Amino acid sequence: MADEADKGNEIMAEDLERRIAAARGDIPPGIEGDCELCGEWFGRLIGGACAPCRDKYGLG
Ligand SMILES: [Zn+2]
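^ thats the input. predicted complex w/ zinc ion below
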């Protein structure tokens, strides 16, 4: 149970960081984490999506 709560906090912190960056108009070119589309871990996500998913879904 505690592990799940910890993971939830991590995800929230990451999401908050991204929102702050977006609000500042300063979106980092790539962050590492789990792709929001396929759920796989990638060292570089853009807009929360990995390169294969961006290709697949035409996200540029
Ligand atoms: Zn993906």
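The pocket of zinc ion is lined by residues 35, 37-38, 40, 49-50, 52-53 (CB under 6 Å).
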